[in-house]
């Protein structure tokens, strides 16, 4: 069997933690102390000297009608007061688990809800290999079969990034004792999952914390090839 680990990578950087913030402030302080004066600072000093000297040439009188450094600072300060930063979260989309426009600073992993045996479970999109297919061929087909044609993804390599094996219940064991699932990594490029009454009953773009809904041993196998991040 093949399964697809489809991710949406972070769209913005995460907020700095306490330690990172202390380092950033220290580096900013050092940069300010050791940096050369900017053109604006030099312009301010020149304007101040001219105002204090009370001796103006014709060129100074011409420049007086132009914008001074203080005028520029006042206008910039006023503009800054009206500036509002864009939200770092998904706004009203944040609690919509079917959209990729949430948790913008986190990795999101696609989980689908399917009936496995007699149980409804959250898993990665997966399916059995058909005759003549490579494992990657199966992974690409499974993603289309389970999630529809609107979802565009880029597969990262031809080889599996991990695997998970399990035993069938004794009542269903025949010539084979169990199955092995090979995972392939991919990243979403565009689109989203189509439900349309297909095999996928529901889906969830999950953060690392929300992946806890996966079966425990299955989750352990997946975490081996995912880049971890702080909660």
Automatic annotation (TrEMBL):
<comment type="similarity">
    <text>Belongs to the mitochondrion-specific ribosomal protein mL46 family.</text>
</comment>
<dbReference type="InterPro" id="IPR021757">
    <property type="entry name" value="Ribosomal_mL46_N"/>
</dbReference>
<dbReference type="GO" id="GO:0005840">
    <property type="term" value="C:ribosome"/>
</dbReference>
<dbReference type="InterPro" id="IPR000086">
    <property type="entry name" value="NUDIX_hydrolase_dom"/>
</dbReference>
<keyword id="KW-0809">Transit peptide</keyword>
<dbReference type="InterPro" id="IPR033650">
    <property type="entry name" value="Ribosomal_mL46_NUDIX"/>
</dbReference>
<feature type="domain" description="Large ribosomal subunit protein mL46 N-terminal">
    <location>
        <begin position="2"/>
        <end position="85"/>
    </location>
</feature>
<keyword id="KW-0496">Mitochondrion</keyword>
<dbReference type="InterPro" id="IPR040008">
    <property type="entry name" value="Ribosomal_mL46"/>
</dbReference>
<protein>
    <recommendedName>
        <fullName>Large ribosomal subunit protein mL46</fullName>
    </recommendedName>
</protein>
<dbReference type="Pfam" id="PF11788">
    <property type="entry name" value="MRP-L46"/>
</dbReference>
<keyword id="KW-0687">Ribonucleoprotein</keyword>
<dbReference type="GO" id="GO:0005743">
    <property type="term" value="C:mitochondrial inner membrane"/>
</dbReference>
<dbReference type="InterPro" id="IPR015797">
    <property type="entry name" value="NUDIX_hydrolase-like_dom_sf"/>
</dbReference>
<feature type="domain" description="Nudix hydrolase">
    <location>
        <begin position="109"/>
        <end position="217"/>
    </location>
</feature>
<keyword id="KW-0689">Ribosomal protein</keyword>
<dbReference type="GO" id="GO:1990904">
    <property type="term" value="C:ribonucleoprotein complex"/>
</dbReference>
<dbReference type="Pfam" id="PF00293">
    <property type="entry name" value="NUDIX"/>
</dbReference>
